[in-house]
């Protein structure tokens, strides 16, 4: 894995190179191993091009989804399509392709990838246009499907747990776009992640504008509070409604856990006995500390949910 240090991230504050740790987060595939499907052609990702006047590039005017396979099957593809459409509607990007067309193109791309688990990113931008915010009915969205081999994190690494820190960058800025939309505007999350790695952590925990817990830079947050209560910020708490989060909440209820989806104060972090993050690429990732406070890792409840997830999805 290429270290973040080798990537030479610039420190947002000082404009100097950040001192960062090797990330324990699951790395997406290397660009050199990825392929792109654009307009019916499959080509190496590094040869893929979009026009500079694509509004996805000019204005961050794009939506995306990340999907992965377990044992060769795409996990919850229709949930990802649904969220892609919800986000596109929120941005008023017309998506004229049907789910079965999208699924067919994903399979076409996967047919060119080596056999094994796959990472797929669907990306729809508003498309090339004028340097103007004015709506242009003739503008055609661009669809890109990017894919590569997916390498799951080893169970031993997951079991050691990740380190998370709360950061000062809020999940949403005043007059926010809806944080529930999975758009190409990821700057708050990216800056929050930079801050976390500068502080030697693996993931940043962002708060809402009112100081409540929201989520990780690219993950949802779960806490286990005393009495085996599974608590997670509600979808009103400026979070993305993660596909993995939904799966885990259902699982938790099925195994009889008390589940609380509500506005959570930052003090809950101090009461938590266990905590974990969820996302497509990390499934269930236990946290071993938050802001330097050690947690049971993985504690008994997290372990039950990890095992339940493995039974459901076929892996972690
Ligand atoms: C901000 C944010 N929250 C949560 C998630 C987890 O969502 P999912 O489980 O659908 O991957 C992601 C995934 O990228 C994310 O970017």
Question: Care to describe what's here?
Answer:
The radius of gyration is 19 Å and the shape is globular. It has two domains: 28-149, 2-Layer Sandwich (D-amino Acid Aminotransferase, Chain A, domain 1); 155-313, D-amino Acid Aminotransferase, subunit A, domain 2 (D-amino Acid Aminotransferase, Chain A, domain 2). It is 27% helix and 26% strand. It contains nine helices and 15 strands. Strand 13 and strand 14 form a beta hairpin. The model is unreliable at 1-22 (pLDDT under 50). With 316 residues, it is an alpha+beta fold. The longest helix is centred in the N-terminal third of the chain and has 15 residues, at 77-91. The protein has helices spanning 4-7, 55-59, 77-91, 99-110, 155-160, 187-198, 243-254, 268-271, 300-313; strands at residues 35-38, 41-44, 62-70, 73-74, 118-125, 142-149, 162-166, 203-207, 213-216, 220-225, 229-233, 258-262, 274-279, 283-290, 293-294. Pyridoxal-5'-phosphate (PLP) binds next to helix 7 and strand 13.
């Amino acid at each position: 894995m290429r270290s973040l240090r080798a990537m030479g991230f610039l420190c947002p504050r000082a404009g100097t190179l950040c001192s960062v740790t090797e990330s324990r987060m699951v790395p997406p595939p290397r660009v050199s191993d990825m392929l792109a499907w654009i307009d019916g052609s499959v080509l190496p990702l590094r040869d893929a091009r979009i026009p500079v006047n694509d509004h996805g590039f000019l204005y961050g005017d794009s939506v995306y989804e990340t999907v992965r396979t377990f044992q060769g099957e795409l996990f919850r593809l229709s949930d990802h399509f649904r969220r892609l459409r919800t986000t596109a509607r929120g941005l008023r990007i017309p998506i004229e392709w049907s789910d079965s067309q999208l699924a067919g193109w994903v399979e076409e791309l996967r047919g060119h990838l080596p056999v094994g688990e796959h990472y797929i990113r669907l990306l729809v931008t508003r498309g090339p246009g004028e340097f103007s915010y004015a709506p242009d009915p003739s503008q055609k969205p661009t669809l890109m499907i990017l894919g590569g081999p997916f390498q799951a994190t080893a169970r031993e690494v997951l079991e050691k747990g990740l380190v998370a820190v709360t950061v000062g960058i809020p999940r949403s800025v005043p007059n926010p776009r809806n944080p529930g939309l999975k758009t190409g505007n990821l700057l708050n999350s990216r800056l929050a992640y930079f801050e976390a790695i500068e502080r030697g952590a693996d993931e940043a925990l962002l708060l809402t504008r009112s100081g409540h817990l929201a989520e990780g830079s690219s993950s949802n947050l779960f806490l286990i509070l005393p009495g085996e209560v599974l608590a997670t910020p509600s979808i009103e708490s400026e979070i993305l409604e993660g596909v993995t989060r939904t799966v885990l909440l259902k699982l938790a209820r099925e195994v009889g856990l008390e589940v609380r989806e509500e506005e959570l104060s930052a003090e809950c972090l101090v009461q938590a006995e266990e905590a974990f993050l969820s996302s497509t690429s990390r499934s269930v990732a236990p946290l071993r500390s938050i802001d330097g406070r050690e947690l049971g890792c993985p504690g008994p409840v997290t372990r039950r949910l990890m095992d339940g997830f493995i039974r459901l999805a076929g892996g972690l």
